[in-house]
## 1
Amino acid sequence: MLILLWGVAACSGYGMLKLLYTKQYRKSLGSLLGFAYTFICYSVMLAMYYYLPFGMLLIFLVLPLWLGGLCIGVGGYHIALYFLCNEQLEATYIGEQSSYGGNGISVQYAIFEYTYAQKTYHEKSMNSERYRYLKTLEKGRCYPIYINPKKPSCFLVTKRIQLSDVLMIAFGVLCCFLPFL
């Protein structure tokens, strides 16, 4: 258990520092906040383990609360994007950007070019899109997107609340109530 706590704290700290070093936090503030939240939570759990009597028992009570908070934060962030990106405009589809993870898993983001308030933006979408959906889009053609008027570089291609976000929030609420059952 102790090795797991050290591992998660180190990985989340590394992810947070990498986002800060490459200055990607401007586009993915949610990722930075997630890494920071995880780093702080697991660092506090390590301190509890070392400095409090029966610290390991306290970790088993507090861990579901922190895990639930993280799940609620991720699901809530995606649902908040749904409400923040409320202005529709036409944008030109440029292509997609793929990010590859382990075990052959890839995530695709649509890249669009659009003009808002006399400024041209060339940005990728805030949420990943299905590969099958992106293959139906033609490069150079205009499609409707939804932008955040306060931060026009943030946009969504498809405006929908996904079932996975609702399930993530439900799982987070369940985790928060788990220690009290």
## 2
Amino acid sequence: MGSQRVCTGNLLARIAFRTCISPTETRTIVSMTSNGSGVGVIDKAAMVLSALEAGPASLAELVSLTGLARPTAHRLAVALEFHRIVGRDLQGRFVLGPRLAELSSAAGEDRLLAAAGPVLGQLRDQTGESAQLFRRQGDLRLCVAAAERPVGLRDSVPIGATLSMRAGSAAQVLLAWEEPDRLHTGLRGARFSATMLSGVRRRGWAQSIAERERGVASVSAPVRGPSNRVVAAVSISGPVDRLTRQPGRLHAKSIIDAARTLSEALIRG
């Protein structure tokens, strides 16, 4: 079975699976320094991470969300970026970084990733293809767990790799159930259409053929959290010659079953 690492939304602030920050949450972030640990730089860094948990943010947005002075917010974000706790998306906005995945894996605190190892291993064995789990990270998707096909031609996506949200079946799944404005924005420059995403929602799975990379096909299905929101995409990928140009016909049921098992693990808590 492939090695595993865990991705978390915000390890320091213990917050996960949100899509937006409400006015109440914004006030909570801004007030953290007044109810802090007494170590100011740590409290302020936690404020930055709490703001980024909601999604990508420009420097101006970080300042607005945290109440920090612009030079302070910039200095903290860049320092966190140096340590890979914060990253950048394709538009240069700050996002949560891959180091959080590694830390969370060591702590063993992510229920989804704790369940992902055996589920992806079983999916790989059932389909004969490499299996992955992706989470969205701004304009990118992050591979947070994988079980590689041990021999033969395979599509290898290492843990921690970031791929585009503009192509691939996992990108389709992670975008298909977004709110209309976010969906519309996500379709700009995408290699799939709104009509294709409508089909994904109707079927409950997505497939792609040479969409992300020539000669590679994939199938993906959504993993849902307790609120029924899509929080991840489980996928298999491999050469088109083996998966054919209709990979969903071969493996959609196995993918859906794996996604359902992971969703149930989240719901059970």
## 3
Amino acid sequence: MVKTRVLVLGGGLGGVSAALTLTATEALREKFDVTLVSHGWRLGGKGASGRNAKQGQRIEEHGLHIFLGFYDNAFRMVRGAYAEWDEPADYAFQTWQDAFRPLYQVTLMQDIPRFGKTRWHSWNLDFPERSGTPGDPRSLGPNGFAAFLIGALQNLVAKHDHLPGHLTAKLGLDALEKARAHIEEAGDGALDHGLIVDLLKLVQKGFQAVLEPLLKLSDEGWEFACFADFGLAFAIGCFADVLPYGKDGFDRINGEDFREWLQKNGISDTFAWSAPVRLLYDMCFSYKNGEATDGPENARFAAGAAAEILLLMGFAYKGAPLWKMNAGMGDTVFTPAWFVLKQRGVDIKLFHRLTKLETSENGAWVERVRLNRQVDLVNGAYDPFVKVGYGDDGKWLYCWPSEPDWSQIVDGDKIRDAGINLESVFCHCTAGESVLEVGKDFDLVVLAMPPAALADPAAALMDANLRFKQMVEVTPAVPTQAVQLWMTPTIEEMGWKAGPTAMTSYVEELDSWGEMSHLIPAESWPPGTVKAVEYFCGTARWPAGAPPYACGLPQRMAADVRRDATQWLNANIGVLWPNTVKDGVFDQSQVYSSYYRYNLDPSELYVQCFPATVETRLKPGDSGFVNAFLAGDWTRTWFSAGSAEIAVLSGKQAAEAIARQTIDLTPSD
């Protein structure tokens, strides 16, 4: 049987997912011959991480990576990889449970005006453990979100039932009970969504009548007012605009901005840019041109995608709402994927960068793929891993280094000394060109690279197909920045008493923080030196000037990240870690090591989900070209926002379009 040759261009989650799905069974492996191509020395895309051997084998990430508990497809992929891979007996991660840990707390930061001053408060939200294992099929009924929404509002009120009765008595809480009873009576049948909207508006009217007294009451009154105001507007919008229309409901409002949609549904001006609203804008870097410091002025997020994500985050997670990785994302996700792909016979070609896609004369299919072979290899093959110890019991991990093993590369020392970054499109390094012809070298191609990375090499496709051109040109993307600190005091000694958390909605531009001290056993620091590991990230502005940018610009911009981060820490860290402030500024002597990153390369940009852009995205199986398929979180799939879940789902759907069948990836762990 002649196999169909599939060329996957891109080594991020979308490409890896496509390759894993297309080789998931023996029957598929008999039909398809898969080659995965990626530039540089490692897989991962935006999820790539590296180990710095000169700095305690520290983990260096693109940013703060955490899986959410509703990432069903991403967890299925990871669970399946660990179940299939036959790890060495002393390998630290034998199962996916070894590689991930649950996190039940989320921290939102809110500035509260009181007595003529504005002070930042941390709202530490503890989520309950839910039944199920991440990656298992979801069992939420057709009216499940409706029941959860009303239940959440009732629980919020119950949590604050000690507030003065003369205030809470005016909230019309009996209307919430009527809504709950109606949903319960309906079961899986049709709901009267209009009735529920009317009941919620009664509660909203009563609440807004006591809003000012609540704000003046206490910080707790302010917090209750904020979440109640947000929750009511969100619920009214969901019952009015989304839930009556089934799966199409979210798409109906993707032309609107999320914040403006909340305002349309009655959120007060006081809370229209509060922490619950900011949550997704900060988490998903949703600011036009990276301009996050101007408040909501440049904030953009498609309302349908935002509403769906919040519902899934709050009510559809399994186990915990968040799952942190116990090593770098590369070590945790892409290492097992690599070994499973190799085990299945997938040919992985590193150090190859796409330079040009050429179409047939009629523009119907991809006829030729041109690749820049960045380097030649000393032995013709490349071993991408280093072994790094894990903990004190002799266990270890296969990890991706933060730079190539130059000894395996012809003239590696010269390339290194020239400052060439083999992952950066702005640095040119070539050992020759590989030209692949359709019908000879490949039959089908999966474009697993984001629009910004396709804009130049796919110019011929853009000329041949207007929809493809619109997708590339309209899909917004933004640079991001990341800061990692390895601290000599523990997090408790620094003054944070609330325990492990993931925080967002704080001062721009480093608005998000992850407490990552659990990673210390995964690194190799001298005993007693590093006692806390902390990650920050946020949007970043575009650099001055226009592309093409010079080689090394991202690294030089990292120096600006360091400068700006120092100023940010001096001004803002005292709220989180009061014991790290000395003489009014951040005490740098408590920092044992630090890493600063500016993500500018087209393949590293975060793909945003702005209003009126979702409809220009193309589905993985609908590229407009007969033999081309798409994979990545920039395609049209589910909620169409940048995430590991959508990247994996997109790769799976691309593979299913190629195979013309549904492919079950439910793991057998």
